[in-house]
Amino acid sequence: MPRKNKGMWYEVHPTPAKGANGKNLVYVRPKSGLKMTFEELQDRCDKYYSLRYGELQRAFDTFLRAVGFYLAEGYRVETPIGTFAPKLFLTRPITDPDEVTDRDVRFDGVEYNPGKRWNREVEKWLEGFRRAKLPNSLEILADQDKLERQMHECIATYKGYTTVGLYAHYTGLTTYSARKLLNNWTTGDQPKLLKTRRGRDYIYTEI
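Structure (tokenized):
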């Protein structure tokens, strides 16, 4: 079995909100740049959990097909890793429930609520926290060409869209800087991105 880690890497960033002392409040997030591919995950399962390489992929493929079928029927699906449910929306403003027709209802993605087992599994391995060196946002923002390339890469990675949180994590920017940069790309005579509300958040897609 793999030995326990020595703690989770995290970063500290300021927020626009002010605290009682007049200074900006801060928030913490996992260290940017830490990523494990699915292939690496399969290697780990092969090495430590007696699951041959490829079996995890086949299990996920079967899971997606089975859960997708029941989500399309309108079911909530409870699993060991959490609950999945279809999200729906109306294509036009309606005040009378009797006026809603099948044509007015659209599928808006899948809602996922993690199960308690996730917390237990993480806490089982976690031995503490390690503070990472804070990225220099000014240095990152100085290379606009690189940030634009990363924007396209991020959208491609996440199947055609990004959010402020995803882009911030991808680039190492603060949430504030990532939001400002993405919003700038939605304006002007030739905008690069389209900003669309999705639930409580906004998604950004290429034009």
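The mean pLDDT is 88. DSSP finds seven helices and eight strands in the chain.
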